[in-house]
Specification:
Mean pLDDT: 93
Number of strands: 11
CATH superfamily of the largest domain: Ribonuclease Z/Hydroxyacylglutathione hydrolase-like
Shape: globular
Helix content: 25-40%
Low-confidence stretches: none
Strand order of the largest sheet: 4-5-6-7-10-11
CATH topology of the largest domain: Metallo-beta-lactamase, Chain A
Distance between the termini: 20 Å
Number of helices: 10
Radius of gyration: 19 Å
Structural class: alpha/beta
CATH architecture of the largest domain: 4-Layer Sandwich
Length: 250
């Protein structure tokens, strides 16, 4: 939260509200501290488990912050109370933005911790996939390189996957973000949005889109990164239990 407040200070703005996608600590942990430091702060979300929640939102509810308009999009699966936020400004030349939390990633989707393949299929096709194609996708994590390595395993002949992976690796090496992408791009290389395509059906051995998605998620859950030598100091930190406060179970 203190890093965020430093950015707020540098930008010379006032923090009025927080839009929280879901309750997991790596997305909501700072809420309570921020609520203490910023009296009157509004915290929006769809799940009672979100820390310092003040305003519970529902699917298709619209919020307004100055010129910024927000549509709340309920996407249960990763958690049962996951909400994405679609934002735009009327009359602005800028593309709209989707803050997709852990539902949709660049090249991937979130794990089905509290939901089903049927729910994620609805999320990706009818809710998020139906947004304007120029929408910028701001997801909750930089998982792009690993996601695209899996996408390449699924579609080894997909030239767009190869190019995007090479680009993402370079960005990673330079410590630059791979986020945002656009929704239009995601349909070209994200296997979880390509479940009706022949190569995906061939890889999974399924034709029903929901079954393709279910199989893909299982394959992705079991997908191993190439083994890397662990950092010796990191291993010591694990041995000494220094990371244990950060390793709460989801």
């Amino acid at each position: 939260p203190f890093q965020l407040l430093e950015i707020v200070r540098k930008e010379d703005v006032v923090l009025r509200a927080i839009l929280t996608t879901h309750h997991h600590w790596d997305h909501a942990r700072g809420n309570e501290e921020l609520a203490k430091l910023c009296p009157g702060l509004r915290v929006y979300g769809a799940d009672e488990r979100i820390g310092a929640l003040t305003h519970k939102v529902t699917h298709d509810q619209e919020l307004t912050f100055g010129a910024i308009r927000v549509r709340c999009l309920f996407t249960p699966c990763h958690t049962s109370g996951h909400m994405c936020y679609f934002m735009w400004e009327d009359g602005s030349p800028d593309a709209p933005a989707l803050f997709s939390g852990d539902t949709l990633f660049v090249g991937g989707c979130g794990k089905f911790f509290e939901g089903t393949a049927e729910q994620m299929y609805t999320n990706l096709t009818q809710i998020l996939g139906a947004l304007p194609k120029e929408t910028k996708v701001f997801c909750g994590h930089e998982y792009t390189v690993r996601n695209l390595k899996f996408a390449l395993k699924v579609e080894p002949e997909n030239e767009i996957v190869k190019k995007k992976l090479a680009w993402a690796k370079q960005r990673d090496d330079e410590d630059l973000p791979t986020v945002p992408s656009t929704l239009q791009e995601e349909f070209l290389y994200n296997p979880f949005l390509r479940v009706t395509e022949e190569p995906l059906q061939k890889f999974t051995g399924k034709t029903d889109p929901v079954e393709v998605l279910r199989t893909l998620r299982t394959e992705k859950d079991n997908f191993k990164k190439p083994k890397e030598r662990p950092h010796p100091q990191a291993m010591l930190a694990f041995d000494w239990g220094l990371f244990s406060p950060f390793l709460e179970k989801k």
